[in-house]
Amino acid sequence: MYLGADFEHINRYREFQMSPAGEFLDLDIDSAKPKPGFNGEDKWNSGMKVKARINANRKFWYGEMKIPIATVDARPAAGGNELRINLFRQDDAPPNRKFLAWQVTGVWNPHHPDKFGILRLVK
Fold first, then answer.
1. How many Å apart are CA 31 and CA 4, to the nearest integer?
2. Separation CA 123–CA 120 (nearest Å)
3. What gap in Å lies between CA 117 and CA 9, rounded to an integer?
């Protein structure tokens, strides 16, 4: 998941990933830099917590992310606040990797904040 609150500098956003095994990654991204995610963004810590569960019989996995809103948005969480968001999934291993997106970027690289959608908080 990519999530950003800065509508003026859309290249600044946060990246949150998790695996079926409960491994996770949280990055403070500036997509204007070459190779987003490889410029020290990994030094940031959101305080995110994850929970994952695998149902092997049904070939499903379930994941939950608990992300402190203050790590994404300086405003307190309130109905009407809007954030920029995109959701992605990578499935399978190369060379058969499938790349799925909620808001399609048109290329394999997901770091296209101009393609993000809007998440509006409600009460």
1. 12
2. 10
3. 15
Which residues does residue 101 pair with via DSSP β-bridges, in sequence order? 88
End-to-end Cα distance, the chain: 22
Number of domains present in the structure of the chain: 1
- Total-model pTM: 0.87
pLDDT digits (tens, 9 = 90+) for 59-103: 899 999 999 999 999 999 999 999 999 999 888 888 888 888 999
Spatial distance between the Cα atoms of 113 and 2, rounded to a whole number of angstroms: 9
For 84, counting Cβ atoms within 10 Å of its Cβ (0-12 exposed, 13-18 middle, 19+ buried), the class is buried
Q: How many CA atoms lie within 13 A of 28 on its CB side?
A: 12
Paired tokens of 95: 């060379």
- 11 vs 19: CA distance, rounded Å: 25
Q: What is the residue range of 71's domain?
A: 2-120
Question: Do residues 20 and 61 lie in contact, with contact meaning Cβ atoms separated by under 8 Å?
Answer: yes
Looking from the CA of 118 toward its CB, the CA atoms found within 13 Å total 7
Identify whether 68 is preceded by a cis peptide bond (ω within 30 of 0): no
